Amino acid sequence: MSLMTIKTFSFGGDLAINRLGFGAMRLAMGTFDGPVRAPETGIKVLRRAVELGVNHLDTAGFYGRGPVRANELIRRALTPYREDGLVIATKVGPLRGPKGLPSEQAMPDQLRGLVEADLRSLGLDRLDLVYLRVGGMSGPGGESIAERFAVLAELRAQGLIRHLGVSNLDAAQFAEARAIAPVAAVQNRHTGDMGLLAACEEAGIAYVPYFPLGGGGEPRSAERLGKVAARLGTTTAQVAIASLLAMSPSVLAIPGTGSLDHLEENLAAADLSLTEQDLADLRG
Description:
It is a single chain. The chain is built from 11 helices and 13 strands. The protein has helices at residues 25-28, 39-51, 70-78, 111-122, 146-157, 171-178, 194-203, 222-232, 236-245, 260-267, 276-283, and strands at residues 8-11, 15-18, 22-23, 56-58, 64-65, 68-69, 87-92, 94-95, 104-105, 127-133, 161-167, 185-187, 206-207. The two termini are 24 Å apart.
């Protein structure tokens, strides 16, 4: 069985999801400092995503501005939530700085309030998966996450959170978190740390690249993607998504969009099969 035929993954062994999900960051606005989008469009995108089989939504309380926020759009679009396995993952830790960007970090005593705010805005009694996102706008590493992760572990013990994840971290921080409580998922920038990906695969932990299409300033090889896309008669975005899913059975993709057309294009990548030659061309 090829990796492309492995369509599902299970968070923590008990939350089965499709490996191709949806990231909610672009629902409210294209970028953190960009213009706010019409909420009605975001609601249509969410409902269509679920119609097309998405059962893993990735969101955060800091996605959006003013009254247009991803969590509220999810609640408006999808409540009452279906009972057949819709998994909503959120992340806490970042706080918006003076420029409106999520550049600052919450202190340990602020994390409960952020979790409770996500529960309210999403209309839930328990969050399926909560990531501790560390590091602000910088890269991973350089600080202890133990005290903050221990707060989330306590909220999990109290029943407010089902599973815990960590985001924007290095191998040392990963080990630090796992010594405190079970980790169900890691969300890091694309797939730059292959050692961490291998550790996740070995432990049955999901690896969820953010900016799966190379956004946020991370360059992608347009020439290589274009070569494979031309051969397959598909788009470069679809090839980029399919190449992530072909890396490891632990990799989940969460491409996000505020466009119905782009949504359908992205989700079609779940049925795209890459050959060994395709993958070799993408690796260069």
